[in-house]
Amino acid sequence: QVHLVESGGGVVQPGRSLRLSCAASGFTFSTYGMHWVRQAPGKGLEWVAVISYEGSSKYYANSVKGRFTISRDNFKNMVYLQMNSLRAEDTAVYHCAKDGVPGYGMDVWGQGTTVTVSS
Amino acid sequence: QSALTQPPSASGSPGQSVTISCTGTSSDVGGYNYVSWYQQYPGKAPKLMIYEVSKRPSGVPDRFSGSKSGNTASLTVSGLQAEDEADYYCSSYAGSSVIFGGGTKLTVL
Questions:
Q1: Distance between CA B52 and CA B68 in Å, rounded?
Q2: Which of A106, A108, A113 to mutate to test the interface with B (most CBs of B within 10 A)?
Q3: Whether pLDDT at A81 is above 80
Q4: Does the beta-carbon distance from B46 to A45 stay under 8 Å?
Q5: pLDDT digits (tens, 9 = 90+) for B70-101
């Protein structure tokens, strides 16, 4: 069964860093791109970043460019999101999602991990 | 990267049909046949309902259908059922990025 499980969320002060992880299982991880998508409390979905299947191509939303870095380890079936210089507006549930259909469609989602940026 | 425009809410009675619109620009919705729709229940992860404008993943009822005209995509839910009450989000490929709509809360009266 295809499964994505995020971890690493928590409460962090503004300006600090946090690294999220996403463990994948049930599919050939190394052949799919992966996304991070976030949802602020009571708000809609916001795309954050995508990484290609082999890790060579990475793209980011303007709101996180230069602060967040997406990476992956195809040996461990893991995708990561390194978040630096965190701001209050980064507070959200962060989901990882499998890039499984053409046009960056996301066919499998994790339940998410919560990040709260607060002093 | 402005969000796609969706109506905040939509509603219909059981058995009726409801259509939710999603308006973008020629740089996203109008430029590619890569519109997806997601269903999300409160506190749950989103679920892919439609991709490539009108294709349904296996397991999604054929009551859900998608279409596109110009810069506007639409999701139609026919034969509304109580379990269709949820939030619905459109998204579009926008050239190395993804743009989501603001979401529409569908209420089954």
A1: 10
A2: A106
A3: yes
A4: yes
A5: 999 999 999 999 999 999 999 999 999 999 99
